[in-house]
Amino acid sequence: MLQLATIFQDGMILQREKPVTVWGTGTPGATVTAEIQGKCAGVITDEQGKWRVVLPALSASEEEQLVIGSGEETIICRDVAVGEVWVAGGQSNMEFHMRYEKHLKEALKACPNRRVRFFDVPEVCYEGQMEEFDYSRQNIWRCATAEDLEYFSAVGYYFEKAICDALNVPVGILGCNWGGTIAAAWMNPETVKKCGLPWMLDYEKRLSEMDVDVYWKKQHHNPMNDRGNLFADPFTEYFMPRTPSEEEIREFFTHTPDGLSDYLEMMQPQEIPGSLYEHMLKTIAPYAIRGFLWYQGESDDVPGKNILYKDMLTGLIGDWRELWKGADIPFLLVQLPGYDRWLLETEENHYPIIRECQEQVADTVNNVYLCSISDVGEEKDIHPKNKKTVGERLALLARGHVYSAEAGSEELLCDAPRAISAERNEDEITLTFCYAGDGLRIAGDSIDALKLYNDAGKELPYVFRAEGDRLVLRLAEAEAHLGSSTERDAEVEMISQLNGDAEKSACATVTPERIQIKFAQTPWFLVNVYNSAGIPAVPFEFVC
Q: Helices 351-364 and 309-323 sit at what angle, rounded to 10 degrees?
Protein backbone atom coordinates (compact mmCIF):
# COMPACT_ATOMS: atom_id res chain seq x y z
CA MET A 1 0.00 0.00 0.00
CA LEU A 2 1.33 3.41 -0.99
CA GLN A 3 2.17 5.68 1.95
CA LEU A 4 4.01 8.96 2.49
CA ALA A 5 6.22 9.85 5.43
CA THR A 6 4.01 11.73 7.90
CA ILE A 7 5.60 15.12 7.24
CA PHE A 8 4.21 15.10 3.67
CA GLN A 9 0.59 16.19 4.00
CA ASP A 10 -1.93 18.87 3.10
CA GLY A 11 -0.86 22.37 4.00
CA MET A 12 2.90 21.73 4.01
CA ILE A 13 5.61 24.04 2.72
CA LEU A 14 8.37 22.69 0.48
CA GLN A 15 11.79 24.30 0.09
CA ARG A 16 12.28 26.39 -3.03
CA GLU A 17 15.38 26.45 -5.26
CA LYS A 18 16.71 23.11 -3.96
CA PRO A 19 16.07 19.49 -4.97
CA VAL A 20 13.14 18.19 -2.92
CA THR A 21 13.29 14.67 -1.49
CA VAL A 22 9.99 12.84 -0.92
CA TRP A 23 9.86 9.40 0.68
CA GLY A 24 7.54 6.71 1.97
CA THR A 25 6.62 3.05 1.52
CA GLY A 26 4.78 0.99 -1.05
CA THR A 27 4.70 -2.38 -2.75
CA PRO A 28 8.20 -3.86 -3.09
CA GLY A 29 9.50 -3.53 -6.67
CA ALA A 30 6.79 -1.07 -7.71
CA THR A 31 7.38 2.24 -9.51
CA VAL A 32 6.53 5.41 -7.59
CA THR A 33 6.28 8.83 -9.21
CA ALA A 34 6.01 12.32 -7.71
CA GLU A 35 4.84 15.44 -9.53
CA ILE A 36 4.45 19.12 -8.65
CA GLN A 37 4.73 22.35 -10.64
CA GLY A 38 4.86 20.21 -13.81
CA LYS A 39 8.09 18.55 -12.64
CA CYS A 40 8.17 14.80 -12.21
CA ALA A 41 10.53 12.13 -10.90
CA GLY A 42 10.22 8.41 -10.29
CA VAL A 43 11.88 5.51 -8.49
CA ILE A 44 11.43 1.78 -7.87
CA THR A 45 10.76 0.68 -4.28
CA ASP A 46 13.30 -1.59 -2.57
CA GLU A 47 12.77 -5.07 -1.13
CA GLN A 48 11.17 -3.62 2.00
CA GLY A 49 8.91 -1.36 -0.05
CA LYS A 50 10.79 1.79 0.91
CA TRP A 51 11.21 4.50 -1.68
CA ARG A 52 12.78 7.93 -1.98
CA VAL A 53 12.36 10.22 -4.95
CA VAL A 54 14.14 13.50 -5.63
CA LEU A 55 12.27 16.25 -7.48
CA PRO A 56 14.08 19.07 -9.31
CA ALA A 57 14.29 22.47 -7.63
CA LEU A 58 10.95 24.28 -7.35
CA SER A 59 9.96 27.95 -7.57
CA ALA A 60 8.21 29.84 -4.78
CA SER A 61 4.46 29.42 -5.12
CA GLU A 62 1.21 28.73 -3.28
CA GLU A 63 -1.79 26.42 -3.63
CA GLU A 64 0.11 23.65 -5.35
CA GLN A 65 -0.65 19.94 -5.38
CA LEU A 66 1.94 17.19 -4.82
CA VAL A 67 0.75 14.05 -6.60
CA ILE A 68 2.28 10.68 -5.68
CA GLY A 69 1.35 7.67 -7.78
CA SER A 70 2.14 3.97 -7.93
CA GLY A 71 0.11 1.75 -10.24
CA GLU A 72 -3.54 2.43 -9.51
CA GLU A 73 -2.78 4.13 -6.19
CA THR A 74 -2.61 7.91 -5.94
CA ILE A 75 -2.01 10.27 -3.03
CA ILE A 76 -2.63 14.00 -3.46
CA CYS A 77 -1.31 16.58 -1.01
CA ARG A 78 -3.27 19.79 -1.44
CA ASP A 79 -2.72 23.40 -0.42
CA VAL A 80 1.04 22.93 -0.77
CA ALA A 81 3.21 26.04 -0.72
CA VAL A 82 6.81 26.38 -1.89
CA GLY A 83 9.10 28.80 -0.10
CA GLU A 84 11.60 28.69 2.76
CA VAL A 85 11.85 25.93 5.39
CA TRP A 86 13.95 25.91 8.57
CA VAL A 87 14.37 23.44 11.42
CA ALA A 88 13.99 25.00 14.88
CA GLY A 89 15.80 22.78 17.40
CA GLY A 90 16.79 22.87 21.05
CA GLN A 91 15.19 22.71 24.46
CA SER A 92 12.40 24.59 26.24
CA ASN A 93 13.23 28.10 25.09
CA MET A 94 12.90 26.96 21.48
CA GLU A 95 9.90 24.78 22.31
CA PHE A 96 8.27 27.72 24.18
CA HIS A 97 4.85 28.04 22.56
CA MET A 98 3.14 31.17 21.32
CA ARG A 99 0.42 30.27 23.84
CA TYR A 100 2.67 31.73 26.56
CA GLU A 101 4.53 34.45 24.67
CA LYS A 102 4.50 38.04 25.88
CA HIS A 103 3.22 39.53 22.60
CA LEU A 104 0.57 36.91 21.76
CA LYS A 105 -2.36 39.34 21.63
CA GLU A 106 -0.52 41.58 19.22
CA ALA A 107 0.55 38.60 17.09
CA LEU A 108 -3.04 37.37 16.80
CA LYS A 109 -3.91 40.58 14.95
CA ALA A 110 -1.79 39.36 12.03
CA CYS A 111 -3.81 36.14 11.76
CA PRO A 112 -4.76 34.40 9.61
CA ASN A 113 -1.58 34.19 7.57
CA ARG A 114 -1.51 31.09 5.39
CA ARG A 115 2.02 31.86 4.19
CA VAL A 116 3.39 31.15 7.68
CA ARG A 117 3.19 27.49 8.70
CA PHE A 118 4.53 25.18 11.38
CA PHE A 119 5.11 21.44 11.75
CA ASP A 120 5.66 20.09 15.28
CA VAL A 121 7.75 16.90 15.35
CA PRO A 122 6.30 14.58 18.04
CA GLU A 123 8.33 14.41 21.22
CA VAL A 124 9.33 10.77 21.08
CA CYS A 125 12.48 9.22 22.54
CA TYR A 126 11.95 5.44 22.39
CA GLU A 127 10.39 2.81 20.15
CA GLY A 128 6.67 2.38 20.75
CA GLN A 129 6.07 5.68 22.53
CA MET A 130 3.84 6.95 19.70
CA GLU A 131 1.55 3.96 20.16
CA GLU A 132 1.38 4.26 23.96
CA PHE A 133 0.07 7.81 24.03
CA ASP A 134 -2.19 10.13 22.05
CA TYR A 135 -0.08 12.22 19.64
CA SER A 136 -2.96 13.47 17.49
CA ARG A 137 -2.12 17.10 18.32
CA GLN A 138 1.37 16.78 16.85
CA ASN A 139 2.71 15.66 13.47
CA ILE A 140 0.48 18.31 11.87
CA TRP A 141 1.20 21.17 9.50
CA ARG A 142 -0.56 24.23 10.91
CA CYS A 143 -1.12 27.70 9.48
CA ALA A 144 -0.86 30.89 11.51
CA THR A 145 -4.54 31.17 12.39
CA ALA A 146 -6.15 32.40 15.59
CA GLU A 147 -6.92 28.79 16.47
CA ASP A 148 -3.52 27.28 15.74
CA LEU A 149 -1.03 30.03 16.53
CA GLU A 150 -0.67 28.89 20.14
CA TYR A 151 0.95 25.64 18.95
CA PHE A 152 3.80 27.43 17.18
CA SER A 153 7.28 27.68 18.64
CA ALA A 154 7.35 31.39 19.54
CA VAL A 155 10.94 31.85 18.39
CA GLY A 156 10.09 29.95 15.21
CA TYR A 157 6.98 32.02 14.53
CA TYR A 158 8.61 35.41 14.87
CA PHE A 159 11.54 34.21 12.75
CA GLU A 160 9.40 32.90 9.91
CA LYS A 161 7.03 35.86 9.92
CA ALA A 162 9.96 38.26 9.61
CA ILE A 163 11.46 36.21 6.77
CA CYS A 164 8.08 35.99 5.05
CA ASP A 165 7.64 39.76 5.26
CA ALA A 166 11.18 40.46 4.03
CA LEU A 167 11.30 37.98 1.13
CA ASN A 168 7.60 37.83 0.24
CA VAL A 169 7.55 34.03 0.09
CA PRO A 170 5.86 31.35 2.23
CA VAL A 171 7.94 30.17 5.19
CA GLY A 172 7.66 26.99 7.23
CA ILE A 173 9.26 25.88 10.50
CA LEU A 174 9.88 22.27 11.50
CA GLY A 175 9.81 22.37 15.30
CA CYS A 176 12.17 19.65 16.54
CA ASN A 177 12.73 20.41 20.22
CA TRP A 178 12.15 19.13 23.75
CA GLY A 179 12.39 21.03 27.02
CA GLY A 180 15.22 20.24 29.42
CA THR A 181 17.22 18.13 26.97
CA ILE A 182 21.00 17.84 26.67
CA ALA A 183 22.95 18.12 23.43
CA ALA A 184 23.98 14.45 23.66
CA ALA A 185 20.36 13.36 23.14
CA TRP A 186 20.32 15.17 19.78
CA MET A 187 23.56 13.61 18.53
CA ASN A 188 24.75 10.38 17.00
CA PRO A 189 26.00 8.36 20.01
CA GLU A 190 29.29 7.71 18.22
CA THR A 191 29.81 11.46 18.00
CA VAL A 192 29.07 11.83 21.72
CA LYS A 193 31.86 9.35 22.44
CA LYS A 194 34.29 11.40 20.37
CA CYS A 195 33.25 14.88 21.50
CA GLY A 196 31.96 14.37 25.02
CA LEU A 197 33.03 11.01 26.38
CA PRO A 198 32.15 11.94 30.02
CA TRP A 199 28.49 12.25 28.96
CA MET A 200 28.54 8.75 27.52
CA LEU A 201 30.47 7.28 30.45
CA ASP A 202 27.97 8.79 32.88
CA TYR A 203 25.10 7.21 30.95
CA GLU A 204 26.83 3.83 30.82
CA LYS A 205 27.50 3.97 34.56
CA ARG A 206 23.85 4.67 35.33
CA LEU A 207 22.85 1.89 32.98
CA SER A 208 25.13 -0.60 34.75
CA GLU A 209 23.56 0.22 38.10
CA MET A 210 19.99 -0.58 37.06
CA ASP A 211 17.92 -3.53 35.96
CA VAL A 212 17.28 -2.48 32.36
CA ASP A 213 14.21 -4.68 31.90
CA VAL A 214 12.57 -3.30 35.04
CA TYR A 215 13.50 0.24 34.01
CA TRP A 216 11.81 -0.01 30.62
CA LYS A 217 8.79 -1.74 32.08
CA LYS A 218 8.32 1.28 34.34
CA GLN A 219 8.94 3.73 31.51
CA HIS A 220 6.09 2.26 29.49
CA HIS A 221 3.77 3.33 32.31
CA ASN A 222 5.50 6.62 33.09
CA PRO A 223 2.99 9.49 32.77
CA MET A 224 5.92 11.87 32.15
CA ASN A 225 6.41 10.13 28.79
CA ASP A 226 2.98 11.28 27.63
CA ARG A 227 4.18 14.18 25.47
CA GLY A 228 1.26 14.30 23.06
CA ASN A 229 -0.52 17.26 24.67
CA LEU A 230 1.93 19.61 26.35
CA PHE A 231 -0.87 22.01 27.26
CA ALA A 232 -2.27 19.34 29.58
CA ASP A 233 0.89 19.40 31.70
CA PRO A 234 0.16 21.33 34.94
CA PHE A 235 3.83 22.29 35.35
CA THR A 236 4.02 23.82 31.86
CA GLU A 237 0.72 25.63 32.21
CA TYR A 238 1.72 27.10 35.57
CA PHE A 239 5.29 28.18 34.94
CA MET A 240 5.47 29.17 31.27
CA PRO A 241 3.00 32.09 31.13
CA ARG A 242 4.53 33.99 34.07
CA THR A 243 7.18 33.94 36.78
CA PRO A 244 5.64 32.76 40.09
CA SER A 245 6.95 33.96 43.43
CA GLU A 246 8.96 31.66 45.69
CA GLU A 247 5.89 31.15 47.87
CA GLU A 248 3.78 30.18 44.85
CA ILE A 249 6.46 27.76 43.68
CA ARG A 250 6.57 26.02 47.06
CA GLU A 251 2.80 25.79 47.09
CA PHE A 252 2.74 24.27 43.60
CA PHE A 253 5.18 21.51 44.50
CA THR A 254 3.12 20.50 47.54
CA HIS A 255 0.56 19.13 45.06
CA THR A 256 2.85 16.72 43.18
CA PRO A 257 0.75 13.68 42.16
CA ASP A 258 1.30 10.51 44.17
CA GLY A 259 3.91 8.21 42.65
CA LEU A 260 5.38 10.84 40.34
CA SER A 261 8.38 11.36 42.61
CA ASP A 262 9.53 7.80 41.82
CA TYR A 263 9.73 8.66 38.13
CA LEU A 264 11.45 11.98 38.82
CA GLU A 265 14.31 10.15 40.49
CA MET A 266 14.87 7.91 37.45
CA MET A 267 16.93 8.61 34.38
CA GLN A 268 14.49 9.97 31.83
CA PRO A 269 14.55 8.27 28.38
CA GLN A 270 15.12 11.60 26.63
CA GLU A 271 18.44 11.86 28.51
CA ILE A 272 19.83 8.84 26.67
CA PRO A 273 22.54 9.86 24.17
CA GLY A 274 21.14 9.68 20.67
CA SER A 275 17.52 9.15 21.72
CA LEU A 276 16.11 12.32 20.13
CA TYR A 277 18.51 12.16 17.22
CA GLU A 278 17.13 8.72 16.41
CA HIS A 279 13.43 9.12 17.17
CA MET A 280 12.80 12.76 16.25
CA LEU A 281 15.44 14.25 13.99
CA LYS A 282 15.74 11.26 11.69
CA THR A 283 11.98 11.28 11.05
CA ILE A 284 12.24 14.58 9.16
CA ALA A 285 15.59 14.12 7.41
CA PRO A 286 16.25 14.80 4.58
CA TYR A 287 13.17 17.02 4.12
CA ALA A 288 14.55 19.90 2.06
CA ILE A 289 15.42 22.90 4.23
CA ARG A 290 17.37 26.14 4.11
CA GLY A 291 18.96 25.92 7.54
CA PHE A 292 18.80 25.31 11.28
CA LEU A 293 17.93 27.49 14.27
CA TRP A 294 19.36 26.26 17.59
CA TYR A 295 18.49 27.48 21.10
CA GLN A 296 19.91 25.13 23.72
CA GLY A 297 22.69 24.86 26.27
CA GLU A 298 21.07 25.38 29.66
CA SER A 299 20.93 21.63 30.35
CA ASP A 300 24.58 21.18 29.36
CA ASP A 301 25.66 23.44 32.21
CA VAL A 302 26.84 20.55 34.36
CA PRO A 303 30.06 21.18 36.32
CA GLY A 304 32.92 19.31 34.70
CA LYS A 305 30.93 18.74 31.50
CA ASN A 306 30.00 22.29 30.51
CA ILE A 307 33.56 22.86 29.29
CA LEU A 308 32.86 20.19 26.65
CA TYR A 309 30.05 22.20 25.07
CA LYS A 310 32.19 23.66 22.28
CA ASP A 311 33.11 20.19 21.07
CA MET A 312 29.62 18.83 21.69
CA LEU A 313 27.94 21.63 19.74
CA THR A 314 30.47 21.30 16.94
CA GLY A 315 29.76 17.56 16.79
CA LEU A 316 26.00 18.12 16.86
CA ILE A 317 26.19 20.54 13.93
CA GLY A 318 28.18 17.97 12.00
CA ASP A 319 25.63 15.24 12.76
CA TRP A 320 22.68 17.36 11.67
CA ARG A 321 24.37 18.46 8.48
CA GLU A 322 25.31 14.87 7.72
CA LEU A 323 21.67 13.75 7.91
CA TRP A 324 20.82 16.39 5.28
CA LYS A 325 23.98 15.73 3.27
CA GLY A 326 24.88 19.41 3.39
CA ALA A 327 28.26 20.32 4.86
CA ASP A 328 27.53 24.05 4.80
CA ILE A 329 23.86 24.23 5.77
CA PRO A 330 23.52 27.44 7.84
CA PHE A 331 23.30 27.08 11.61
CA LEU A 332 22.06 30.09 13.60
CA LEU A 333 22.83 29.84 17.33
CA VAL A 334 21.08 31.75 20.10
CA GLN A 335 23.59 32.72 22.79
CA LEU A 336 22.14 32.22 26.27
CA PRO A 337 21.07 35.48 27.93
CA GLY A 338 21.69 36.49 31.52
CA TYR A 339 19.88 34.50 34.19
CA ASP A 340 20.32 33.98 37.92
CA ARG A 341 18.08 31.30 39.45
CA TRP A 342 14.75 29.66 38.71
CA LEU A 343 12.28 27.75 40.85
CA LEU A 344 14.00 26.90 44.15
CA GLU A 345 17.54 26.52 42.83
CA THR A 346 20.34 27.27 45.27
CA GLU A 347 23.40 26.68 43.10
CA GLU A 348 24.78 29.42 40.87
CA ASN A 349 24.82 28.58 37.18
CA HIS A 350 27.95 28.63 35.00
CA TYR A 351 26.39 29.99 31.83
CA PRO A 352 29.43 32.19 31.04
CA ILE A 353 31.18 28.93 30.10
CA ILE A 354 28.34 27.91 27.79
CA ARG A 355 28.23 31.37 26.21
CA GLU A 356 31.94 31.31 25.53
CA CYS A 357 31.62 27.87 23.94
CA GLN A 358 28.78 29.10 21.74
CA GLU A 359 30.87 32.03 20.56
CA GLN A 360 33.85 29.77 19.87
CA VAL A 361 31.70 27.50 17.72
CA ALA A 362 30.47 30.47 15.70
CA ASP A 363 34.10 31.54 15.24
CA THR A 364 35.45 28.16 14.20
CA VAL A 365 32.70 26.28 12.34
CA ASN A 366 31.86 27.35 8.81
CA ASN A 367 28.49 29.01 8.18
CA VAL A 368 27.55 29.21 11.86
CA TYR A 369 26.34 32.55 13.22
CA LEU A 370 25.71 33.83 16.74
CA CYS A 371 22.52 35.62 17.77
CA SER A 372 22.84 37.90 20.80
CA ILE A 373 19.78 38.32 23.04
CA SER A 374 21.75 39.58 26.05
CA ASP A 375 19.23 42.35 26.70
CA VAL A 376 16.08 40.22 27.09
CA GLY A 377 16.92 37.66 29.76
CA GLU A 378 15.02 37.45 33.05
CA GLU A 379 16.80 37.25 36.39
CA LYS A 380 14.48 34.75 38.11
CA ASP A 381 13.10 32.85 35.14
CA ILE A 382 14.98 30.50 32.83
CA HIS A 383 12.24 31.10 30.23
CA PRO A 384 12.19 34.75 29.13
CA LYS A 385 8.69 35.57 27.90
CA ASN A 386 9.84 37.91 25.14
CA LYS A 387 10.52 35.60 22.21
CA LYS A 388 9.66 38.21 19.59
CA THR A 389 13.07 39.81 19.94
CA VAL A 390 14.79 36.42 19.67
CA GLY A 391 12.97 35.37 16.51
CA GLU A 392 13.43 38.71 14.81
CA ARG A 393 17.16 38.83 15.63
CA LEU A 394 17.56 35.36 14.14
CA ALA A 395 15.68 36.53 11.05
CA LEU A 396 18.03 39.49 10.75
CA LEU A 397 21.01 37.11 10.87
CA ALA A 398 19.42 34.97 8.18
CA ARG A 399 18.73 37.96 5.96
CA GLY A 400 22.31 39.17 6.30
CA HIS A 401 24.14 35.88 5.91
CA VAL A 402 21.80 33.45 4.15
CA TYR A 403 19.61 35.70 2.03
CA SER A 404 22.12 38.45 1.35
CA ALA A 405 21.47 38.34 -2.39
CA GLU A 406 17.80 39.09 -1.73
CA ALA A 407 18.41 41.63 1.02
CA GLY A 408 19.49 44.25 -1.52
CA SER A 409 22.84 45.55 -2.66
CA GLU A 410 23.47 47.41 0.59
CA GLU A 411 25.19 45.29 3.24
CA LEU A 412 22.86 44.49 6.13
CA LEU A 413 24.16 44.92 9.67
CA CYS A 414 22.98 41.72 11.33
CA ASP A 415 25.77 40.62 13.71
CA ALA A 416 26.17 41.60 17.35
CA PRO A 417 28.96 44.06 18.19
CA ARG A 418 32.02 42.25 19.55
CA ALA A 419 35.01 43.70 21.36
CA ILE A 420 38.10 42.68 19.37
CA SER A 421 40.83 44.58 21.23
CA ALA A 422 41.61 46.51 24.41
CA GLU A 423 44.39 49.08 24.49
CA ARG A 424 45.49 50.86 27.62
CA ASN A 425 47.21 54.19 28.00
CA GLU A 426 47.79 54.90 31.69
CA ASP A 427 44.34 55.36 33.19
CA GLU A 428 42.45 55.14 29.89
CA ILE A 429 41.32 51.96 28.14
CA THR A 430 40.04 51.87 24.57
CA LEU A 431 37.84 48.94 23.54
CA THR A 432 37.42 48.51 19.79
CA PHE A 433 34.42 46.65 18.38
CA CYS A 434 33.58 45.03 15.09
CA TYR A 435 30.02 45.14 13.74
CA ALA A 436 29.41 48.53 15.34
CA GLY A 437 27.72 49.90 12.22
CA ASP A 438 27.32 53.66 12.43
CA GLY A 439 28.57 53.61 16.00
CA LEU A 440 28.00 52.12 19.44
CA ARG A 441 25.07 53.31 21.50
CA ILE A 442 24.56 53.07 25.25
CA ALA A 443 20.99 52.79 26.51
CA GLY A 444 21.23 54.77 29.73
CA ASP A 445 23.72 56.76 31.78
CA SER A 446 25.91 53.81 32.73
CA ILE A 447 27.21 50.64 31.13
CA ASP A 448 25.48 47.67 32.67
CA ALA A 449 27.43 44.44 33.11
CA LEU A 450 30.85 46.06 32.48
CA LYS A 451 33.24 45.85 35.44
CA LEU A 452 36.89 46.75 35.93
CA TYR A 453 39.03 45.07 38.61
CA ASN A 454 42.58 45.29 39.83
CA ASP A 455 44.67 42.19 40.50
CA ALA A 456 43.43 42.09 44.08
CA GLY A 457 39.86 41.75 42.79
CA LYS A 458 38.79 45.23 43.84
CA GLU A 459 36.24 46.85 41.53
CA LEU A 460 37.46 50.09 39.96
CA PRO A 461 35.17 53.02 39.17
CA TYR A 462 35.30 54.50 35.67
CA VAL A 463 33.65 56.97 33.32
CA PHE A 464 33.05 56.25 29.65
CA ARG A 465 32.34 57.68 26.24
CA ALA A 466 31.38 56.03 22.95
CA GLU A 467 33.29 57.12 19.85
CA GLY A 468 32.14 55.31 16.73
CA ASP A 469 33.30 51.70 17.01
CA ARG A 470 35.22 52.41 20.21
CA LEU A 471 34.28 52.51 23.85
CA VAL A 472 36.69 54.59 25.89
CA LEU A 473 36.92 53.94 29.63
CA ARG A 474 38.77 56.26 31.98
CA LEU A 475 39.41 55.36 35.58
CA ALA A 476 37.44 57.71 37.77
CA GLU A 477 40.58 58.45 39.86
CA ALA A 478 44.13 58.58 38.55
CA GLU A 479 45.23 56.09 41.23
CA ALA A 480 42.17 53.84 41.02
CA HIS A 481 44.17 51.08 39.40
CA LEU A 482 46.49 50.99 42.40
CA GLY A 483 43.73 50.61 44.96
CA SER A 484 42.79 53.39 47.39
CA SER A 485 45.40 56.06 48.19
CA THR A 486 45.33 54.98 51.84
CA GLU A 487 46.07 51.37 50.91
CA ARG A 488 48.84 52.40 48.55
CA ASP A 489 50.44 54.82 50.99
CA ALA A 490 50.44 52.13 53.67
CA GLU A 491 52.11 49.69 51.27
CA VAL A 492 54.77 52.24 50.26
CA GLU A 493 55.45 53.16 53.89
CA MET A 494 55.91 49.53 54.85
CA ILE A 495 58.39 48.93 52.03
CA SER A 496 60.17 52.16 52.96
CA GLN A 497 60.67 51.01 56.52
CA LEU A 498 62.06 47.69 55.36
CA ASN A 499 64.30 48.88 52.54
CA GLY A 500 65.01 52.55 53.10
CA ASP A 501 63.96 55.79 51.38
CA ALA A 502 65.53 54.86 48.03
CA GLU A 503 63.17 51.94 47.73
CA LYS A 504 60.26 54.19 48.61
CA SER A 505 61.03 56.44 45.65
CA ALA A 506 61.21 53.50 43.24
CA CYS A 507 57.97 52.04 44.54
CA ALA A 508 56.10 55.28 44.06
CA THR A 509 56.79 55.20 40.31
CA VAL A 510 56.13 51.48 39.76
CA THR A 511 54.21 50.56 36.57
CA PRO A 512 50.48 50.38 37.35
CA GLU A 513 49.16 46.87 37.89
CA ARG A 514 46.99 45.07 35.36
CA ILE A 515 43.30 45.78 34.97
CA GLN A 516 40.76 43.05 34.33
CA ILE A 517 37.88 44.04 32.07
CA LYS A 518 34.82 41.84 32.40
CA PHE A 519 31.65 42.32 30.39
CA ALA A 520 28.62 40.09 31.06
CA GLN A 521 30.76 37.49 32.83
CA THR A 522 28.30 36.84 35.65
CA PRO A 523 25.28 34.51 35.57
CA TRP A 524 22.82 37.43 35.60
CA PHE A 525 23.18 40.62 33.58
CA LEU A 526 21.36 42.86 31.13
CA VAL A 527 23.45 44.34 28.34
CA ASN A 528 22.77 47.92 27.22
CA VAL A 529 25.60 48.40 24.70
CA TYR A 530 24.19 48.28 21.14
CA ASN A 531 25.31 48.78 17.58
CA SER A 532 23.38 51.01 15.19
CA ALA A 533 21.09 48.09 14.28
CA GLY A 534 19.96 47.77 17.90
CA ILE A 535 21.79 44.48 18.51
CA PRO A 536 23.39 44.09 21.96
CA ALA A 537 27.09 43.30 22.43
CA VAL A 538 28.23 39.77 23.27
CA PRO A 539 30.17 39.01 26.48
CA PHE A 540 33.93 39.56 26.54
CA GLU A 541 36.91 39.67 28.87
CA PHE A 542 40.34 41.34 28.60
CA VAL A 543 43.35 41.97 30.79
CA CYS A 544 45.53 44.98 30.09
A: 50
